[in-house]
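SAMPLE LOG
Freezer: B-3
Tube label: C17
Construct: single chain, 111 aa
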Amino acid sequence: MVLGDPRSGPGGRRREATDLYATVLEVIKRYHGAARVTRISYGAGMPVDRLRTLLERLVALGLAHVEEQDGRPLYDLTARGQEFLDTYWKMRAYVEVLGPIGRDVRRGAQP
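STRUCTURE (predicted):
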C-alpha cells in the first residue's frame, strides 16, 4: 500500500509503478540497511515473488543497494533512492493540491 493513502491496498485503486517503488523504498528506509525480503514484503503488502523482481529493478536503477549477509540479501536505500522519495512526496503533494483531473479535463470543462 502507498503509505498514508487510504485508497491503496485491498479494495482501493491499482497502484502505479511509482507508488510501488516509493512504498518499497520507504520500507527499506525504515530498516536502516537491514531490510530482508520478507520484511519488505510484509511492509509493502506484496507477494515475495513479485517483490524480488521489483527489488532487482530498484537495485539496477541505483535506488537501492543489496548486500549479502549470512547468505541472505539485505537491502538499503541509496542517496539516489532518498532523492527519488523526496521528489515523489513533493509531486504527490502537488497532485493533491490540484485535485482529481479525470472526466472534467476530457470533457473540456472549465475549473
